[in-house]
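Aim 2, interim progress: modelling of the phosphoenolpyruvate-bound target.
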Amino acid sequence: MITLRGKGVSKGVALGRLVFLERSAVTVEKQPVSDTAGEIERFQAALRTAAEQLDKLSTEMVEKIGKKNALLFEIHRMMLDDPDFCDPVIAIIERERLCAEYAVMEAGKRLAQDFAEMDDEYMSERAADVRDVANRVIAVLTGNQSPVSSGNEPVILAAPDFSPSETAQFDRSLVLALVSQQGAANSHTAIFARTMGIPAIIGLGASLSPGLAGKQAALDGETGEFCVEPDPETVQTFEKRREQFQKEQRELEPFRGKPTVSPSGQRIKLYANIGSVTDVEAALSGDAEGIGLFRSEFLYLGREDYPEEDVQYESYRKAVELMRNKPVIIRTMDIGADKQVGYFDLPKEENPALGMRAIRICLTRPSLFKTQLRAIYRASAHGNVAIMFPMINTLEELRQAKAMAREAREELAAETIPFNPETPIGIMIETPASAVISDLLAPESDFFSIGTNDLTQYTLAVDRQNESISAFCDTRHEAIIRLIRMTVENAHRAGIWAGICGMLGADQALTKTFLDMGLDELSVEPSYVLPLRKHIGEL
Ligand code: PEP
Ligand code: MG
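Predicted structure of the complex, ligand included:
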């Protein structure tokens, strides 16, 4: 038995024969041409054929992968007209006097590379789409258009990587699961696999070699475990997991698209937490009614320098548009503590969790804060946005933060840049201090979202990062419950809503307590939405 571990990107368990995807080999040779005008005409004819294919695909795929996902083929179709793609192809044909298929391959490679190097994670993952479009045009030019084939028995399909259009076109009944050597968690391939309910693991590396083809395999698309030639005991374990997973999924389906309501008729909103725009797909397929916490600081992590206003705006706008008119609550950056960013040059602190973090950074670096507020307000012109400040401790902090928001609005108005002036402004209740003075904070806030992860750390004096003291971290401690209850009561007295966006919101042992308190919203990881709705429906 060989055991490999990759990144599980689409949940589910599969057992079956491993087959390496046979792609009809397309060989592109560097052929010189004398009639460059004729070659350009051949390229343009190939673009027209590829466009017809994509028009057809985008209609056919609506049923299979949903309208939103099928939009990808319209985007691929638009790439065919994009000068960034076409002009370099024509330049290579004209200047280097080379054949069209070689020019498309070269230009496609360079454009894909440009995308791959972009800072924005979403944009860099679009490199796969560029390659996909270029391969389609090459296939037309070389006359090599036989569809990818996986044979006619259901198998676990392996490949170095899968392109988005390949994945979308797989016959679900013939593909038990997908495994690849490379890949990105938020590529369209992973998104489609999740949408189509195909378990998938990416990033298994070169150990996933074609030499394994034909062998039996078992995998778990959640944990990323992949076993080739599993022994009988492992087969049994995976079979049990598969049964359990299928049972759980079947039981969730009746709750999809339904409001969240308890048997006594009490309604509660179930939102999802996301860390980037690429998580929106998971929130939608998890059936979240909105985004209750967009942890915007992830935009600042893993970069060399501050993300500019436009970069942030694009990211927030995309999330808001993808959510259609559902609420998207964007938390302003919570940098510091466990989320350190080199270019912020934060002071070295003994206790960073008690130090310069979140709103404290924003209030001491106003221009940084203003850039983010402007970007969020600009996104508010495209949908249902709310702003949320983290780690508010005093009324004064709230007022200062709101004054910055007002300045951002005034600037945008003066520049005639559209935004929603009514964008709600709420705060996170994450410290005992804010819970205790929630009666003072409520009249000046549009909503409260209780960050129980930090509220627990600060109330019980247990470092949330320190695994060795986890035994002392009683997340259901009566002190936490009382602080939550106090916060909800004060919110309601002031006529605003209150929710929970910390992990405690998904603790089903407390759901009944939360409903009895009258909590209005729970925001949880996307995959917890449906299980929680089911639980509430059956309380
Ligand atoms: C929290 O503290 O509960 C919370 C939701 O914020 P974060 O986990 O990002 O600190
Ligand atoms: Mg927090």
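The first strand starts at residue 2 and ends at 5. The mean pLDDT is 91.
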